[in-house]
Write a structure and sequence with these properties.
The protein is built from 14 helices and 18 strands. It is of the alpha/beta class. It folds into two domains: about 325 residues, no CATH class; about 45 residues, no CATH class. The relative contact order is 0.15.
Length: about 500
């Protein structure tokens, strides 16, 4: 048993700035003639090298007929590129491409999908970002509309960009701020994992918390043998899915790449478990033991009671009562020192190594993308063609996934196995993959075949011999990513 993971280093860890991100060199297989960039595009060359490292269609490398994705894609297919588009800006005004997949990576992949389709089939770039992602702002940042326009000039309706969400919000997740969206044109696929769900083993479902204040919806769908997810029809009905996540730390599960990035295939993110309310002695994993003072704990529990009382009802009048109470607290009570410091809040809402809930939904989502058919029914054999290319040209560390610091790693990572690619990505970040519960659980699981059972089942292919042996190395920090604050001392190699 051996699973290949390719790793390629860019000459310079830098993205091209000019859309639609043409290559800066006319490679023999390049399908778009004289559309060449006058400024360097190190990403395109890095992706090309990555396919070479993996040995894809090696006999034709350097020829016009080179088709590295031909093993995955056939003419006439619908192929989805699934990026990480969680937010449209960096709220700390740092590099936004430490948060989201860079469009130049998507453009380069789309070129090779185009080659494999041979003029027949469709390319869709789609994701369901976080509720507060402004899609128009995202398009202005990424200039993906220029990429879409370029492809559709070559062949009409050949590439489409889709926001899979049902709504978004300009500010907080309040009822009055929701703006309806068209959602996925292919609708939602409901899938019940039942006894095969890792979430089923959580002792007290009544403590579960999801994406929004309406906890009862989550509890109703994750109690006993009812373990339901709503998945994007565009993803589930695709012939092939290429996941293009970001190389980032994550506050709830340690790292986010392919597996955690599957949150973006859900049309209802409130069915995704984030953490369990309360401290460990109460059966929760909301924050570490002894992290808050008794007064701070009382404040946090009062906040949660207010969410359940006022916001969970999804009523605008009750929302404004909630806002009024917060205003009064900020105006008259906070000045008396009755508050929770911002730095201490970093480890609230399950943002620490003891979160025993969130990794479970990652396990469930990997099971669904691999083994659920387009109607949401599980099978023992994989149901769709999958490939992964992790964008680590600029990664994100420290306060990932939403407010990371940029880590200019200059790397792309690829594999047919989401699990193997994520394991290698975590190790190159400087972490121990076996300290990450998502990975250790999947490696130990006996009921389902994820293609590997131990780290030695992964074969790393790179021109850098040191990277080839990264999973055997027990000391090197490689790109030296800093963990999220709640994970420091619990994830590093």
């Amino acid at each position: 048993m051996s699973v290949n993971v390719g790793v390629s280093r860019a000459k310079i860890a830098e993205y091209p700035k000019n859309a639609p991100y043409h290559p800066s060199e006319k490679f023999p297989e390049y399908p778009f003639g004289e559309n060449i960039s006058s400024s360097p595009n190190y990403v395109y060359s890095c992706l090309r090298q990555l396919f070479f490292e993996l040995g894809l269609d090696l006999e034709n490398f350097g020829k016009a007929e080179w088709n590295p994705l031909g093993f995955l894609i056939e003419p006439g297919m619908t192929v989805v590129l699934k990026p990480n588009f969680v937010r449209s800006r960096h709220f700390e005004k740092k590099d936004p491409f430490s948060i989201i997949t860079h469009p130049s990576v998507l453009r380069a992949i789309a070129d090779y999908v185009w080659i494999a389709l041979k003029g027949k089939g469709n390319i869709i770039i789609s994701d369901a970002p976080q509720y507060d992602c402004n899609w128009q702002e995202l398009l202005e940042l990424t200039k993906l509309d220029e990429v879409e326009r370029f492809f559709n000039l070559q062949r009409e309706n050949s590439l489409q960009i889709l926001d899979l969400r049902k709504y978004w919000s300009r500010g907080k997740h309040f009822p009055s701020m929701r703006i309806p969206l068209d959602g996925d044109p292919e609708g939602a696929v409901s899938a019940n994992l039942g006894n095969e769900s890792a979430v089923k083993d959580i002792n007290d479902p009544k403590r579960l918390y999801g994406a929004v204040y309406h906890r009862q919806e989550l509890i109703d769908n994750h109690t006993g043998e009812k373990q339901v997810y709503e998945l994007a029809g565009t993803i589930m009905k695709a012939d092939a899915v290429i996941s293009v996540p970001k190389l980032k730390t994550h506050k709830k599960v340690g790292v986010t790449m392919n597996i955690k990035g599957l949150v973006g295939i859900n049309t209802n993110k409130n069915l995704i478990v984030h953490y369990s309310l309360g401290n460990k002695s109460e059966g929760g994993d909301q924050y570490p033991p002894n992290h808050f003072t008794p007064m701070e704990e009382r404040l946090i529990k009062t906040e949660r009671w207010m969410y359940d009382t006022f916001l969970a009802k999804q009523s605008v009048p009750l929302e404004y009562i909630h806002r009024s109470i917060y205003w009064l607290h900020g105006k008259f009570i906070k000045p008396l020192g009755i508050k929770v410091e911002k730095e201490k809040r970093l480890l609230d809402v399950g943002n620490w190594y003891g979160n025993d809930s969130a990794w479970r939904m990652g396990v469930d989502l990997l099971k669904l993308i691999l083994f659920a058919d387009k109607e949401g029914h599980l099978h023992k054999k994989p149901q769709r063609r999958l490939f992964s290319i992790i964008d680590g040209i600029t990664g994100g560390d420290n306060k990932g996934p939403l407010d990371p610091d940029p880590n200019y790693s200059g790397v792309l990572i690829a594999s047919e196995s989401f699990l193997a690619a994520d394991i290698v990505g975590a190790r190159l970040m400087g972490f121990d993959p076996l300290k990450i519960k998502t990975f250790s659980h999947l490696l130990e699981e006996t009921n389902w075949n994820y293609g590997l059972k131990k780290l030695s089942d992964v074969k790393v292919l790179s021109s850098d011999e040191k990277i080839n042996k990264c999973l055997e190395d027990k000391t090197d920090k490689f790109f030296d990513y800093r963990p999220y604050p709640g994970w420091i001392g619990h994830i590093e190699i």
